[in-house]
Amino acid sequence: MNADARFGPGHRILVTGGAGFVPSHLVDALIARGCTVVALDNFVTGSKENVAHLEDEPRFSLVEADISDGLPAGDPALADRFDAILHMASPASPTDFEKLPVEILRVGSAGTLHLLERAVADGARFLMASTSEAYGDPKEHPQRESYWGNVNPIGIRSVYDEAKRFSEAATMAYHRSRGLDTAIVRIFNTYGPRMRPDDGRAIPTFISQALRDEPITVHGTGNQTRSICYVSDLVRGILLLLDSRETGPINCGTEHEMSMRQLAETIVSLAGSSSEVTFITRSADDPEMRRPDLTLARELLGYEPTVLPEDGLRRTIEYFRERMV
Ligand code: NAD
Fold it and tell me: How close is the Cα of 274 to the center of ligand 1, in Å?
């Protein structure tokens, strides 16, 4: 734990979605700092396996609940005051947008409001996991936090984009009207171990296909870009924001921008696969390009991502390879 950390031994932290990909890595980092952590999850896209290694950790508890219905009354793990609440719960992959549209809207609206109320009652710092999708299909490149975005409010992706935008608005409303200590992080495409192989996002899909020597299915021409961030860099950025007094929103990710075609070719090569890269129909409103402007993260938080795409992808490929049946 670094000397500037606001949250460490003796602090109680609630992480919603704690059994998910990114949140479970955050839980690990908070436990490593000496915090007491309660992970709350309904396992709609997460898995108990992601936190199974913490089963015997006395400073860790796992509560099964749907945060859209509120915090369950009477659960002993939730009884005492929290020092910080990290709202990380939400399905987040494009396939989830089609399968779980109402669930996504609820967790990003009712779920957020329940947690904001609890944060006010506890006097806790509230950190909202927002997304680069708040910028929609951006007309500004790279995306600065001051950009208001270009979101189709009724498109197939709108359930996610607008739920996160509502969460941002709600967070700022509680900050302004109730004096709540809040922070918003806009997370750009993050990958790493504990992603679901079938979650529909490009990196796990391409890796699963490459490891089976199946055709890699790139959407559209494959010229659309994303800037990919290994999960350890994101976790460090989120903790820097948590420890700060900043409200945000602050972008977190990397400037490693690459086209989907390049990403597919890199994965095929790193996996030693014989897969061919193929092209399928692109989904509606798929953003054309995506790269964060990291000036605020650097200046206000001292954030600097360190993992190169080749290294992060290699580690992720190994994780998937070990789990292949
Ligand atoms: P994930 O699906 O692995 O994690 C989300 C977790 O939230 C899962 O464990 C899921 O079961 C849980 N959850 C969903 N709805 C819930 C509810 N109503 N009540 C309780 N638990 C619920 O996805 P992830 O990629 O780890 O994303 C974590 C957070 O980060 C999400 O809020 C997502 O929007 C945000 N984010 C992620 C990325 C990324 O690239 N991974 C990018 C932008 C934003």
Answer: 32
